[in-house]
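Thread: quick sanity check before group meeting

JM: Hey all, I'm pulling together slides for Thursday and realized we never actually wrote out the predicted structure for the chain we discussed last week. Dropping the sequence here so it's in one place. If anyone has concerns about the input, flag it before I start.
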Amino acid sequence: MQTLNSRKNAYTSDHPDLTPFFSFGISVDCVVFGYDGVDVKVLVIERGTEPYLGYQAIPGDLVHPQEDAVTATQRVLRDLTGLENIYLEQLYTFAGVDRHPLGRVATIAYFSLLKIGDYNPRPSSWATDAQWMPIQALGEMAFDHKEIFDAALQRLQARVRNQPIGFELLPEEFTLADLQHLYETLLNTQFDKANFRKKILTMDLLIPLDKMQKAVRHRPARLYQFDALRYEALSKRGFHFEL
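JM (edit): ok, ran it. Output follows.
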């Protein structure tokens, strides 16, 4: 009976032209968005090595030979920015022929959305800087990272319109103005105040509290909480969140 190694050797000898197809590099790039109560920002590093020395970049690096891609995302974020235990969702694979000047590298992009106050990035390894940057302030980026960022932003905006993930970025108790500002910032748009509040309240996902804002110069507004249990129950009955 033919052994596995003998089958591999026979296959390789019969198809010598396949060797280049197994010489591609694989990397991961992590687009991490954050909200600080005012702006939507993205985690960027400054590259301290060639290629693209000194350029802004999305945290990313090559996947080790014995490492899976998901494990690589956690290692890359930890090694370059100090962030750990970040949940990331797979976005797309970018595999342009000339996207890396040193050779063919396909990258698997991931994205996430965090509350900035819970995370303090610190550069390490070959990253000379790591910071939260307003998405409008991004400059020229290394590789095709601007294209990756744009794709991640489009996915994020589609997601927040159809799932109430924005509530995770707010304090446990918030005003309707806080909520409107969050969604206007995430979606880069403006909502009519009356229509926005009517739509949100009609969804019946908020718990009105017997509390008002404190230490504000304007008239104090009522505070609310997101009712996660009710959202889960409504979703099982076919409710669809949409802004």
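AS: nice. The beta strands are 25-35, 40-47, 56-57, 60-62, 89-94, 105-115, 127-134, 206-212, 222-226. The two ends are 63 Å apart (CA to CA).
JM: adding both to the slides.
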